[in-house]
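To: structure subgroup
Subject: Chain for Friday's discussion

All,

I'm putting the inputs and outputs inline so they're searchable in the archive.
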Amino acid sequence: MASNGSSRTSRGDPRQLSLDFGSPQTPSMSPDQIFFAILPSPADAAMIRAQAEALRLDLGLRGQLRPPEVLHISLQSVGQYQSLPFALVDRTMHAAWTIELPRFEVTFDRVTSFGAGSGARPVVLRCAEGNAALFDLYEALDPAMEAVGLHGSRPPLRPHLTILYDRKVVPEALLDAPITIQVRDFALVHSLYGESRYLILGRWPLRG
């Protein structure tokens, strides 16, 4: 399990810090996000970044590529907070330790834009339909969270990985060469608002 330092949070393991649920969202501040995600290995992230640069050129996009260290597949949101809610993080981490599933692969076989409107939209890699192992991990999070007293609604999983944001709309198209990554663990991520930077609060291995 890893913990990255920042001036905005303590450097210690959240389970060892004083408990504080954090302050509520206010109109004058934009909250950080906490969520479960799959993070590609450094080698897989570098491969995705190289493929994304080629797609950016081929599709005539101008948006800046996402840094390799923030590439991810979102699984489930824990919430948005003005300050790190250590007590909630502690319970969330206990929930994650109860999940026992095997390692698996995820294959991205298409690219498209998400969202609507005139602003910059996420340009994403989409996963092949029918990745049962990915959905098994997604479905395991809800009962694990409920077992530690955490409840909430969640949207259906739409597996994707954002490579950049761009005003140009990219119609869905198959990739010439699908991209496959190995999923060996999952993580609890603290996304620092406006910084394109993540703190990894914990990682949980999948079975080999």
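Points worth raising on Friday:
The first helix runs from residue 42 to 58.
The first strand starts at residue 32 and ends at 38.

D.
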